[in-house]
Structure formats: structure tokens, C-alpha cells
Amino acid sequence: MHVSMASTVPPRDTSPLIKIETDRRLGHEWDEWDGAPLPNGGDFSTTGTRYFVFTAIGLVLVSALSLVAVFLLAPRIATITDWLPAALYWGIATFAVLSLSWLGLIGAAYLTGRAILPERLAERGLLLKTVYLAWRVGELFGVQRDWTDHAAVVVYDRLALARTRTVSSNELLILIPRCLSRTALDGVLDIARRYDVAAFVATRGQLARRVIRERRPRAVVAVACERDMITGLHDVAGRVPVLGLTMQLPNGPCKDAALDIGKMEEFVKKYLGK
Ligand code: SF4
């Protein structure tokens, strides 16, 4: 077990409006946090619905804005060659149909729990590429990105759980962040001990990537807040299968995080085929 200790830093702001605990070291994903309590006590649990709604709206918006741009620029584009505007219209229409059909297939896989598309066209590829679009659209509707990120992770895990993949305990890696509460950490260590799986505290995404590069696991169970999870999945899910477990942040980001230990055990057992 490798354990990295968080260092103590001075408070970032002494104004009465912004209260950041002295032993809290924010991950860069939370740079803009103003010290206010997180919505819903830092629990962003939700279903995958927000991901689907916002991604669908985003794909329609991208297609519509592209059509308007081509329409406005058509006279200029036609000076290059006559048929180019029509080709662009067809290209955009094809993109809209294919992307929405793809989202429909992801939706069917999510609802049925069946692996309909190959991993590269689903959770370990295209799905992750759409998450940024989804939370950007969510923000247009006033939805904080953590809700959309959580929805995306729910969809991601559902698709990943539909795959048949078993590894031995020494091929599995548990990656946890430095912000877990004592109770959560004890729970994780207990699971690691009982299933004889290596667990690492990764203080930064960079370190997590290094651990994966050096240990070369065949599967990973990763724990992180929604934002860090999406970044981490972008970085590593293409290289190694990952199941992602998000946390609750009752005391704000990067401190005293809680997690669903039962779900973590379920993920570990899934990869170990138990
Ligand atoms: S995983 Fe924990 S330490 Fe890392 S950014 Fe999220 S809340 Fe902060």
C-alpha cells in the first residue's frame, strides 16, 4: 500500500465570506470553488438522464449552428467550388443522424444493461468525448457540471459493467484520492485486504497515470469526485478498463470525502469474477 500524505497549507483567504479549512488542499479541478457549501451536501447522486438530455441537445445545437454558419457563408464557400455548400449540408445532416443514432444505442445499452456497441464506440471512447459537451450544455441551463458528470459516470459504469472481464487479484488496482475520510479509507483498506488487491492513494492525476504505467494493471477500480473522475477516465480508460466510483463531499471538495463501500466491493468483485 502506498500512502501519500497531504501537506498543511495556510488559508487561502481570511475574509469572513470565504472559509477554507487550513488542512484542505484543493485539486485544480476545484480552483474556482468559493468556499460555499456544495449543493445537496456535496452528494451529486443522480441517474444517467441528465447526460442523455444534455448530450442530445448539444448534438442538435452543434448541427444547427453548423447549418446556420454554412448557410450564411454559402456564397463565399461556393466561390471555391459550386458543389461545396451542398456537400457541407449533407455532411452536417449525416453527422446529426449518426451522432443521435449513436446516442440512441448508448441509451439502449444503458436501459438494458447489455453491451451493444464495442468499447471504443461506447464507454472507453466516444462516450467520454461527449461528456464535455453535455456539461457545457447543462451549464447553459444552470445545472452545475457535477450533476452532469455524475450522470455520465453512471452511464459509463453501467456500460462497463455489461462487459465480461475477469482478472486475478494481482492484476487489479484500486486507486483512491487523498481526500477520503478516515472511515472511508478504513473501508477501502479492508476491501483491499480481504480481496488481496493493491490500493494506491494517488494525490494527483499525474501520479495515478504513473502508477498505472508502472504497475500495468489489467483493470482498475478508481475513486474520485465527479470532476476528477471525468478527467481521469479521459486519461486512462482508453488504455485500461476502469470502473469509476464517485464520492460525496459533505464538507466541500478535497476533504473528508465519503463513499459507498458496498458499491466499491461490488466493483472489485465484478473484476475478480466473484
Ligand atoms: S478527488 Fe478529492 S482531492 Fe481530488 S479533486 Fe476531487 S475532491 Fe479534490
Outline the structure in words:
By secondary structure, the protein is of the alpha/beta class. The chain has two domains: 15-36 and 166-272, Response regulator (Rossmann fold); 49-160, no CATH class. It contains eight helices and four strands, in the order H-H-H-H-E-H-E-H-E-H-E-H. The chain has helices at 49-80, 84-112, 126-140, 145-161, 182-195, 205-215, 226-236, 261-272; strands at residues 172-176, 198-201, 219-224, 242-246. It has a four-stranded parallel β-sheet with strand order 2-1-3-4, sandwiched between helices. Strand 1, helix 5 and strand 2 (198-201) form a beta-alpha-beta unit. Helix 1 (49-80) runs antiparallel to helix 2, helix 1 crosses helix 4 and helix 6 (205-215) packs parallel to helix 7. It binds iron/sulfur cluster (SF4). Iron/sulfur cluster (SF4) binds at residues 27, 29-30, 177-179, 224-225, 228, 249, 253-254, 257.
